[in-house]
Write a structure and sequence with these properties.
The protein folds into 2 domains: about 5-215, outer membrane lipoprotein receptor (LolB), chain A (Clam); about 220-320, 2-Layer Sandwich (Phosphorylase Kinase, domain 1), CATH 3.30.200. Helices cover about 10% and strands about 45% of the residues. The chain has helices at about 25-40, 310-320; strands spanning about 45-55, 55-65, 70-75, 85, 90-95, 100-105, 130-140, 140-150, 160-165, 170-175, 180-195, 210-215, 220-225, 230, 240-250, 255-260, 265-275, 285, 290-295, 300-305, 320. It starts with about 25 loop residues before the first helix and ends in an 11-residue tail after the last strand.
Length: about 325
């Protein structure tokens, strides 16, 4: 269950902008961004939040414990098919009782999920986003401060964020396009912050007896220092933040993975040797605010994916090249 993977919400018109924008200096807005960035790593909380995307509305219960730099949380879907997620900094376990399946995924430092949206470096952040303080309001019976992050160009989306005034924890987030139209929304409806979280509250309800285990990213994902792939014409503000070599679970073949970020938005590029009878991904595809672009290059399938506008993934896809064609290793140990 990854709420960040789908979007496209009905436009809120101008309702959210009833909050009056105040003239705040850079230090004040930067302080709020830093406060939000650190809150999820420092606060224990239990709450219920909704995630709205397109015509779909999901309600989720979250138990979150932060201790000595390690975050452990349990998320339970309260509507639709039964789903439960238990994850820490490295591993995510998805429990699907209706299918009697547990799916195990490796996590990376680049994952960006509510309410930990601001987890990347904010260096040069304001070169590509215009940040303003909005007004104060109330969410989940707590006073919040609104922060508006507007994209300065067409390469990235913007955000409207509402942070708890006392702790800085993000209680509501809208992803918005250049016109200010909401593409997706997360919002807590109730939350208790700063409470003790016993280990029992972080255990899944689903029994593990007789279940089928699906191990994703089972092979080691290793950083790559001699990557032969790069991008000639990067969209403004993006730069390489990680490059890895992993194994495609479906095909058991090596996959290069490049991650580019502007400090908030991120784009992933997956490069895999083409095989017989495999579906070729070409051109643009969309799932809400997520766009993907695929093409074949010298016998390799190139797939670009990001929660960014279509033009951004297209530019990445058309600009990627390799300095040489090298044979990828069979596995990574």
């Amino acid at each position: 269950m990854k709420p960040v993977s789908v979007a496209q919400v009905v436009t809120f018109l101008t309702a959210v902008f009833f909050c009056v924008i105040v003239n705040a200096d850079t230090s004040a807005t930067q302080a709020w961004l830093m406060k939000m960035q650190s809150a999820n790593k420092q606060q224990n909380y239990i709450g219920t939040f909704i995630y709205r995307h397109g015509t779909h509305l999901e309600t989720m219960r979250i138990v979150h414990r932060a201790r000595s730099g390690r975050v452990l949380e349990r998320i339970v879907s309260l509507n639709g098919p039964a789903r439960e997620v238990v994850r820490d900094n490295r591993i995510e376990r998805i429990y699907l009782p209706d299918k009697n399946i547990i799916q195990i995924n490796s996590r990376t430092k680049n994952e960006n999920e509510f309410p930990a949206l601001l987890t990347r470096s904010m260096e040069n952040f304001q070169n590509h986003y215009h940040v303003m303080l909005g007004g104060e309001s109330r969410i989940a019976d707590r006073m919040v401060q609104m922060v508006i992050i507007k994209s300065r160009d067409e390469y990235r989306y913007g955000y409207r964020l509402w942070a708890d005034k006392k702790t800085g924890l993000l209680l509501k987030a809208d992803l918005v396009n250049m016109k200010g139209q909401s593409l997706e929304q997360y919002m807590f409806t109730n939350i208790r912050i700063g409470i003790a979280i016993p280990a029992t509250m972080l255990r899944p309800r689903m029994s593990t007896r007789g279940v089928k285990i699906k191990q994703q990213n089972a092979h080691k994902i290793a950083p790559v220092t001699d990557m032969i792939w790069s991008v000639r014409n990067l969209p403004k503000g993006f730069r390489l933040s990680a490059k890895m070599l992993g194994i495609c679970p479906a095909h058991k073949t090596p996959v290069h993975h490049l991650v580019y970020t502007d400090g908030l938005a991120a784009v992933s590029i997956f490069i895999e040797k083409a095989g017989k009878n495999r579906k070729v991904i070409k051109g643009l595809n969309q799932m809400g605010a997520i766009h993907a672009y695929g093409k074949m290059l010298n016998g390799y399938q190139i797939t670009v994916v990001g929660q960014v506008p279509a033009g951004t993934v297209r530019q990445f896809g058309k600009s990627i090249f390799s300095s040489q064609i090298a044979r990828l290793p069979v596995s990574v140990r």
